């Protein structure tokens, strides 16, 4: 499993973005993790799936609400990563109104999740291999803090916990 001090995996995520004004979307667009994190501080959180109850009701809204505080604390970008395709993540971004605050990044084949060692097998529930629920503060492509949830829990990967770690 990835740990504090380790570099993020050198994989490519996908992002489906809205275009202001005309209602059309662009994408999916590749986001090369190594390039996209270079020289930046990223508040990254990952979760089992788009549109799932805890993720939609608590996890994403918390990061949207703490956007200004995280920016003031030196965070350049907030990333939400999930094992879904870019089209689903784009639809979820519209539903959550996360545009301009949280980048909704698709890990469609679970390459990022597998490379970090932060997976969970939800095959028995018809969902296949998914990402564990966690958050991490990433500085210049390396893990500065990591908060992994116990299965079925939402206690340490919230925006407030990560915000406190930016100050620590």
From TrEMBL:
This is Glutathione-dependent peroxiredoxin. It comes from the Bacteria. Its EC number is 1.11.1.27. It holds the Pfam family Redoxin. Residues 2-168 form the Thioredoxin domain. Belongs to the peroxiredoxin family. Prx5 subfamily. Thiol-specific peroxidase that catalyzes the reduction of hydrogen peroxide and organic hydroperoxides to water and alcohols, respectively. Plays a role in cell protection against oxidative stress by detoxifying peroxides. The active site is at 55 (cysteine sulfenic acid (-soh) intermediate). It is an enzyme of class 1 (oxidoreductase). It comes from Ramlibacter henchirensis. Keywords: Antioxidant, Oxidoreductase, Peroxidase, Redox-active center. InterPro entries: PRX5-like, Redoxin, Thioredoxin-like_sf, Thioredoxin_domain. Signal peptide: none annotated. GO terms for biological process: cell redox homeostasis; cellular response to oxidative stress; hydrogen peroxide catabolic process. It catalyses: a hydroperoxide + 2 glutathione = an alcohol + glutathione disulfide + H2O. Gene3D superfamilies: Glutaredoxin. Transmembrane segments: none annotated. GO terms for molecular function: thioredoxin peroxidase activity. GO terms for cellular component: cytoplasm. The lineage of its organism: Bacteria, Pseudomonadati, Pseudomonadota, Betaproteobacteria, Burkholderiales.
């Amino acid at each position: 499993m990835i740990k504090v001090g380790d570099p993020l995996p050198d994989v490519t995520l996908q992002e489906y973005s809205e275009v202001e004004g005309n209602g059309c979307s662009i994408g999916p667009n590749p986001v090369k993790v190594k390039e996209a994190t270079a020289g930046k501080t990223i508040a990254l959180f990952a979760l089992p799936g788009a549109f799932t109850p805890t993720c939609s009701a608590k996890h994403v809204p918390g990061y949207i609400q703490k956007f200004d505080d995280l920016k003031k604390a030196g965070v350049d970008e907030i990333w939400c990563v999930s094992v879904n395709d870019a089209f689903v993540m784009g639809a979820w971004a519209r539903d959550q109104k996360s545009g301009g605050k949280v980048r909704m990044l698709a890990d469609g084949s679970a390459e990022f999740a597998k490379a970090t060692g932060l997976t969970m097998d939800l095959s028995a529930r018809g969902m296949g291999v998914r990402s564990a629920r966690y958050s991490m503060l990433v500085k210049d492509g390396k893990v500065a803090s990591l908060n992994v949830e116990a299965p079925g829990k939402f206690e340490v990967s919230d925006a407030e916990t990560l915000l406190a770690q930016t100050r620590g």
